[in-house]
Specification:
With about 200 residues, chain A is α+β, with helices and mostly antiparallel strands. Chain A has helices spanning about 25-30, 40-65, 70-80, 135-150, 165-170, 185-190, and strands spanning about 5-10, 10-20, 85-95, 105-110, 115-125, 155-160, 180-185. In chain A, about 35% of the residues lie in helices and about 25% in strands. A 7-stranded mixed sheet of chain A has the order 1-2-3-4-5-6-7. In chain A, helix 1 (about 25-30) packs antiparallel against helix 2 (about 40-65). Helices cover about 35% and strands about 0% of the residues of chain B. Chain B has helices at about 20-30, 55-64. The interface of A and B includes residues 7, 8, 46, 118 and 165 of A.
């Protein structure tokens, strides 16, 4: 576990556990569904598709041994190959029941020049339109934590038509369209929202 | 000496910063989804349907 940020849930404000993804998490992503009768909005379609694509990409990196399964492993891989591209999946897990086992995911790549590319970020489709808020924010804060640990000064990603206004708020920039850059000062601000955990990830 | 200043304590249930709350509201309204529909490593043609497998009894019969 790398962080326990707080989110808003139908049961009130609760902490989620953010962990590095493991093989079983990719299987869970394949099983993301939307309950029958639920309005299938564009946001849900994005979440379903991006969740599945993230799982697929993660399995590909895992097969090529270019994925990190823990923060320590990521740090070790960078130390042994400073210009390696290394992928990692962050998974948001609930600390309460009943709830989806995977509340959200973020698939990231550490690039050769030590930036982090956020390729996919999605909250479980069944949390959209309900009393949940902050799953994506919690994942962003946790990515900032990883960035701090590996001394990455920049996180960048591709916003969708729906999420661009969210990133305008995050970065306090009104002109964000399909791409955004989270600089070091915002990453530091995000890290300060977290209680840092020293408990190492499972081997 | 560290110059890092922490103006507010970290977020905890029941004690969340105004900035985080503002992001929650924005996320609930717009989502924080990131991604593109670039199909990574998907086959160019749709998968062919698998052939039905014969029952064990039939397979054994063919062998004989």
């Amino acid at each position: 576990m790398i962080a326990t940020p707080t989110i808003k849930t139908p049961q009130g404000e609760l902490a989620v556990e953010i962990e590095f993804g493991r093989p079983i998490d990719a299987d869970r992503l394949r099983n993301w569904r939307v309950a029958k009768g639920h309005p299938f909005s564009n946001a849900m379609q994005d979440a379903l598709e991006f969740g599945k694509l993230a799982g697929k990409r993660w399995r590909y990196y895992l097969k090529r041994e270019e994925a990190a399964l823990s923060l320590e492993e990521l740090v070790r891989s960078i130390a042994s190959q400073p210009q390696a591209e290394i992928g990692f999946l962050l998974v948001a897990k609930p600390t309460w029941k009943p709830a989806p086992k995977t509340l959200g995911i973020a698939w990231c790549r550490r690039t050769w020049c030590n930036h982090i590319v956020l390729d996919f970020l999605a909250a479980h489709p069944s949390t959209l339109g309900k009393d949940y808020a902050g799953i994506g924010t919690a994942l962003l804060y946790s990515i900032a934590r990883v960035a701090g640990r590996i001394k990455a000064p920049l996180v960048w990603g591709e916003a969708t038509a729906l999420s661009a206004p969210f990133y305008r708020r995050v970065l306090d920039e009104g002109d964000i369209l399909d791409h955004f850059f989270i600089p070091e000062d915002t990453l530091e601000k995000m890290r300060q929202r977290l209680i840092l955990r020293t408990k190492p990830s499972k081997p | 000496m560290s110059t890092k200043t922490q103006t507010e304590p970290p977020d905890t249930p029941g004690n969340v910063s105004a900035w985080t709350r503002m992001l929650w509201d924005a996320e609930a309204k717009y989502t924080a989804t990131v991604g593109s529909r670039l199909k990574f490593g998907l086959p160019l043609s749709p998968a062919k349907p698998k052939r039905a497998r014969a029952k064990a009894g039939k397979r054994a019969a063919v062998k004989v």
